[in-house]
Specification:
- The complex is a heterotrimer of chains A (about 700), B (about 180) and C (about 120).
- By secondary structure, chain A is of the alpha+beta class.
- Helices cover about 40% and strands about 20% of the residues of chain A.
- In chain A, α2 runs antiparallel to α3 (about 60-80), α4 (about 85-105) runs parallel beside α8 (about 265-285) and α9 packs antiparallel against α10 (about 340-365).
- The radius of gyration of chain A is 32 Å and the shape is globular.
- The termini of chain A are far apart.
- In chain B, β4 (about 65-70) and β5 (about 75-80) form a beta hairpin.
- Chain B is of the alpha+beta class and about 180 residues long.
- Chain B is globular and about 65 Å long.
- Chain C has about 120 residues and is of the alpha/beta class.
- Chain C has helices spanning about 10-25, 35-45, 60-70, 85-95, 110-120; strands at about 5, 25-30, 50, 80, 100-105.
- The longest helix of chain C is centred in the first third of the chain and has 13 residues, at about 10-25.
- Classes of the chains: A alpha+beta (about 700), B alpha+beta (about 180), C alpha/beta (about 120).
- Chains in contact: A-B, A-C.
- The interface of A and C includes residues 181, 230, 231 and 235 of A.
Chain lengths: ~700, ~180, ~120
């Protein structure tokens, strides 16, 4: 019987996660004050279904929590309650909590009930508060302490949820002291929750595992309560909810019909609430499992697995079958071979090549996933950050269905988050500044993914204030990244921000200034075999362009010969190959050699020198070839002896048994079984800079 | 039977006994020759023994890192132990041997190949006397020495495989090294 | 009776604190800066430490951090005396392991009330 039930559970969870997504995107789209009844209805219905299903399957924690959300939403869709930013925020956080509850239940883990309790108290508080005439109840707004004395409900007490963190004892604070102080304010009923106590054998006397529900039956000012918690604000999660003589604020109750504004309680509430909210949000954020796609398919969320169409697997099986047939045919041919059968041999080998290629393409296809998996976190991120910063920002995502290798999806997420945060933080201006500059109040950020010429291109475009060329330049000089401007183009100056040790944020803002630098972002992208560029139009906006290879295991490469050594140059990095004529060369003392390509002078990298190749065929550039390559937005010419063929190569790691070799990104095994190194163009340029004076940047 | 023949038979019997004993428990060391000295390494760490194959040079690598080879699809670096321990280089011939060993590092196992002059017998731990090592000439070598063994009048220097190639396969930062001690 | 370590480089502050606390029956040990305080704390176990923040040789926040490293002071209440309620100082203190703070200027009654709350 339990097996049957479990099957239904699966469907319930899948539906519920989808419902949560609907709720989240609906809530994100809601504007305070506007009432799109259809939208709210959709959100309500989603909550209602989840509540119903949870009740049916006996998930009572989930159903009772959802019930409160549903009540709040019901009031909003009926017009009995205004849509306030505060309520929307609380509902969004509740969606997070609900996700956590679902995931935990699905995985058989424990739900963090403390966190649930706190959010529930918050929802109840909102329900108990006035829903109409809600101007001035924006979350985060400073408390307005002028209160007209309410003639309706009176506060007769407070419900306090107090969950100290397990490290609280280490600051010398004692939760009992706090409870004692509370009891000095009036009569208290204290309930202790021992759920989190570990087994005796795991018990650590230095950590604290109790949580408390306290009811204070005294009509004191909330300030008095806040003061008691002053020292331990950061070391606990708590919620303070007023108890009124009108509607009890325990379970979801409709507000009193003759509502009169309850100023003070609610207004001062917002000063306590943010700390409770932020305290609640942190554990909620920590405990909420990765949201990407929820835990669909029954697998534990965040595992290393892929959902694959069974049709794809079937076709793979067929292809392998064909391969086996071809192989045995060739085997038979080989047993009794003579030159008369060479035709058949070639035929067989051709078939082998075709089947292998098909197989390869199909298998690689399996690893491809739409980039929406990575992009899906951004609406929420942009919403939260723009609220936090007080900016108005609209996010547009284009090309979410573009398919990318699974590894790229996994590894591009964090760099993208950093870049988007940067855009939000330093790019988009405050609404007032935008209006003053003649722009619309709401800034716009675009996340665009597309396939271009064998690569994935991801762009982050904003219409903010663009990069400050002069400030970047002066900062770079100040930090010793370059010695002077030389003749760096604007683009090259903008790209100085990728150099290590560089940060122009005037204050290290919490959002993007800390620790992770643009140099780390660039390195991460290089490690994926890609490159990153910046464009900027001062006053109008900036764009960050990331190029990544479609797959990570296989590379289209051009073989080159340097002396008697063979190297592979990734085709994506090659612009063209030319034979250099003497009049194109230009050598400047102390600045290295350059050659003229159309209108630009590009530096030359002498591969023999940079790689220490003995027996170069010639040291005269005009006798060899220049392979013009591009990496990280810069171009140069590689001086090589010969171009060999182009082929697809399988990338093998050098780090498995050795370590990274500068200038290379791995190795491959050639047809004759020997090893050839694959060049990493940006890295090679950095290496070359160390070996010889090169007219990129003046720094070593 | 002549005295000599009898002595030879006895020697043979001894060897047979030894062999029988050999299969019993004990550490086994693969010994090899390097510049007129005998060295031994834990046989469990030996993955294979190959002849010298053309390697692909690694640019800007130390001289004793000869390059990398392809061993059944994996890229394996090859070190020349003579050069690593500042001994004179010897040209490779068809008798030159590469021992592929498995080293354990902080980051997991790695396979590396080392060029030696020739491979010799497998020695069994319980038949040899292992004493602590004196100071040898070369600092890097000394670190890798895990003991000295004598076997039938021969002195064999036992090497710790992990310490032998420690500085190469790992990019151990200075901080890490301090805490290791 | 409980023993309190009072740390302040200003003699008058020390005297005021000491006098107030002794009057209420507590034992008081005085120290002039963090280094002095640390050494006295090691010699004799105290039940509460009240320390100024700005002091020469070792400031109050560093003192708190150092005290927390001692096994016998892991859970001892450590209070900072701050001149204004600046959030950074409070945060820095909490990060170092402070229990809480008392804002200067305070009157003796406030001091006693806080001490009583913390160690009874």
């Amino acid at each position: 019987m339990s097996i049957d039930m479990a099957q239904f559970h699966q469907v319930f969870f899948e539906e519920s996660f989808e419902g949560l997504d609907i709720m989240e995107s609906g809530l994100l789209g809601m504007q305070p004050g506007e009432v799109d009844s259809e939208e709210i209805n959709a959100i309500f219905r989603a909550a209602h279904s989840i509540k119903g299903g949870a009740g049916t399957f006996g998930f009572t924690d989930i159903s009772s929590f959802t019930h409160i959300m549903e009540t709040l939403l019901d009031e909003m869709r009926d017009g009995r309650r205004d849509v306030t930013a505060e309520a929307v925020e609380a509902l969004l956080k509740s969606v997070d909590i609900l996700r956590h509850m679902m995931t935990a239940t699905q995985d058989g883990d424990d739900i963090d009930l403390d966190v649930v309790k706190i959010q529930q108290a918050e929802l109840e508080r909102i329900l108990a508060s006035d829903g109409s005439g809600a101007a001035g109840q924006e979350s985060g707004s400073s408390a307005s302490d002028e209160g007209t004395a309410s003639t309706g409900e009176e506060i007769i007490g407070w419900k306090i949820v107090f969950n100290p963190h397990d490290t609280i004892l280490r600051s010398g604070n004692d939760p009992y002291r706090i409870i004692r102080e509370l009891s000095e304010l009036g009569e208290t009923e204290v309930n202790c929750d021992t759920d989190q106590l570990p087994d005796l054998k795991d018990f650590d006397v230095e950590s604290y595992h109790l949580s408390w529900d306290i009811r204070l039956n005294a009509a004191v000012e909330q300030q008095a309560i806040n003061e008691i918690f002053d020292w331990v604000e950061d070391e606990c999660d708590m919620a303070i909810v007023p108890i009124t003589d009108g509607a009890p604020s325990a379970q979801a109750a409709a507000p009193h019909p003759e509502e009169v504004k309850k100023p003070e309680a609610v207004a001062t509430e917002t000063t306590a609430a943010p700390s409770a909210k932020s305290a609640a949000a942190k554990p909620a954020a920590n405990k909420t499992a990765a949201k990407a796609g929820g835990a669909k398919g029954g697998a534990k969320s965040g595992g290393g697995s892929i959902r694959v169409d069974t049709a794809k697997i079937d076709s793979l099986i067929n292809m392998v079958g064909e391969l086996v047939i071809t192989q045995s045919m060739l085997g038979m041919l080989g047993e009794d071979f003579d030159m008369s059968r060479v035709e058949k041999l070639n035929e067989g080998l051709g078939q082998l090549e075709r089947h292998t290629r098909e197989l390869q393409e199909s298998v690689m296809q399996i690893r491809m996933l739409p980039i929406s998996f990575t992009f899906s976190r951004f609406p929420r991120l942009v919403h939260d950050l723009s609220t936090k910063m007080g900016k108005k920002i609209e996010l547009e995502m284009i090309g979410e269905e573009t398919e990318v290798d699974k590894t790229v999806i996994e590894k591009i997420g964090d760099p993208l988050v950093h870049l988007v945060r940067n855009s939000l933080d330093h790019g988009i201006e405050m609404p007032e500044d935008r209006v003053a500059a003649g722009k619309s109040e709401t800034g716009k950020i675009q996340l665009i993914a597309s396939h271009k010429g064998g690569n994935i291109v991801i762009e982050i475009r904003d219409d903010g204030k663009g990069l400050d060329r002069d400030r970047i330049l002066s900062k770079a000089i100040e930090k010793g990244v370059i010695s002077d401007a030389g003749n760096l183009s604007d683009k090259q100056i903008y790209e100085l921000i990728f150099e290590a040790g560089f940060s122009t944020a005037e204050q290290i803002s919490d959002v993007s200034g800390r620790g992770v630098g643009m140099d780390v972002v660039r390195r991460n992208i290089n490690e994926l075999g890609g490159g990153i560029e910046i464009e900027s139009d001062p006053g109008k906006g900036s764009a960050i362009i990331i190029r990544l290879p479609l797959t990570l295991a296989i590379l289209d490469g051009q073989s080159i010969k340097v002396g008697d050594e063979t190297y592979i140059v990734p085709l994506v990095s090659i612009v063209e190959s030319i034979q250099c004529k003497p009049d194109m060369l230009n050598k400047v003392a102390g600045k290295g050699e350059t050659f003229k390509l159309r209108e630009a002078y590009l530096p030359i990298i002498r591969m023999h020198e940079v790689f220490g190749v003995e027996n170069p065929i010639s040291t005269d550039i005009t006798e060899g070839l220049l392979v013009v390559v591009e990496g990280d937005g810069q171009r140069c010419g590689l001086f090589v002896d010969e171009l060999l063929g182009q082929h697809q190569v399988v990338i093998k790691s050098l780090e498995t048994n050795y370590k990274k070799v500068d200038g290379t990104s791995g190795a491959t095994i050639l047809g004759d079984g020997s090893v050839a190194l694959i060049l990493d163009i940006p890295d090679l340029m950095r290496l070359a800079r160390r070996h010889q004076p090169i007219q990129f940047l003046k720094s070593a | 039977m002549s005295a000599q023949a009898a002595a030879e038979v006895e020697k043979e019997k001894d060897q047979e006994t030894e062999k029988a004993l050999l299969d019993v428990v004990g550490d086994q060391y693969l010994t090899f020759r390097l510049a007129e000295e005998d060295y031994g390494i834990d046989i469990l760490r030996v993955q294979e023994i190959r002849g010298w194959d053309e390697v692909t040079r690694l640019p800007n690598a130390p001289e004793y890192v000869r390059g990398v080879v392809n061993i059944r699809g994996t890229i394996v670096p090859v070190y020349d132990l003579r050069l690593k321990f500042s001994m004179p280089f010897r040209e490779y011939t068809k008798n030159t041997v590469v021992i592929v060993i498995r080293t354990e590092t902080l980051k997991g196992s790695k396979s590396v190949g080392v060029v030696v002059d020739a491979v010799a017998d497998v020695l069994h731990g319980h038949l040899i006397d292992i004493t602590q090592s004196p100071d040898f000439g070369h600092e890097q070598m000394t670190e890798a020495i895990s003991g000295l063994a004598t076997f039938q009048d021969k002195m064999v220097v036992l090497l710790d495989v992990d310490k032998l190639v420690k500085d190469d396969a790992d990019e151990v930062s200075e901080d890490e090294e301090v805490t290791e001690e | 009776m409980a023993t309190i370590l009072a740390v302040d480089d200003s003699a008058s502050m020390r005297q005021m604190v000491s006098f107030t606390l002794k009057g209420a029956g507590y034992e008081v040990v005085e120290a002039v800066d963090g280094v002095d305080a640390l050494s006295k704390a090691k010699q004799q176990a105290v039940n509460l430490v009240i320390t100024d923040v700005n002091m020469p040789n070792m400031d109050g926040i560093t003192l708190i951090a150092e005290l927390r490293k001692l096994p016998s002071y892991k859970f001892t209440p450590l209070l900072m005396l701050t001149t204004e309620s600046s959030p950074e100082k409070k945060q820095a203190g909490k990060a170092a392991g402070a229990t809480g703070w008392i804002v200067k200027p305070f009157n003796p009654d406030q001091l006693l009330a806080t001490v009583k709350k913390v160690i009874g």
